[in-house]
Amino acid sequence: MRMRRLAAAGMTVAAMMALAFAADAQDTAADRRGGRPAGNLPPADQPLIQRFPEPTIAVEGGFGVLGYLGGTAAVGPTWNVRVTGTLSPRLAVEGNYVGSVNERTTTARSLVLTSFDAGVRYNVLRAHEAFVQPFVVAGVGYAGWAGEGGDAFAVAVPLTAGVERLVTRNIKLGARFNFRPVFLDDLSVRGAAERTGGDSWSVIAHGGGAF
Q1: What is the pTM of this model?
Q2: At the N or C end, where does the chain have fewer CB atoms within 10 A?
Q3: Is residue 13 a contact partner of residue 157, using CB atoms and an 8 Å limit?
Q4: Interval 160-169 mean pLDDT
């Protein structure tokens, strides 16, 4: 059953990435067809640069709450540091660090999560098309837990939906909902009647600088 879940999650991530790249390719082709021919400069009463390009790198931090499915631990604080590299108005790649501290529901002791992952982001709307920019992200990475019943290694497949926008030229704010299924995990406390895992959800508000 766990291998089936892992295969299904992998197929979901691969499908999301394939759809994102296909949609981005269609947008790029449409932009090229609709763009101004090379060498056709605007008249002197119109600016040469119609719109500044989107920043290519963003470094952000965030805080929020994280909860576990299946009663593994109570809801607790979580934090996130992320680097995003923009590839096009539709596509970006992300690298994430996520941490959290949650109280075990059975022992009242802390369970500390450390996770690193990389993902592909697809912007549902381009930045100039709405007041906020909605997006989805799919990725894969590492998750480990310290504390009683912790597990040093598991495979995480984070799935994210969120919105963000530039407040100034270099300051970006947003919010995310994350669902993080994990595999090869066992967070059961010794002597527990039932096995518990590390599948979790989180809501995080984030902000940072875009360059």
Answers
A1: 0.76
A2: N
A3: yes
A4: 94
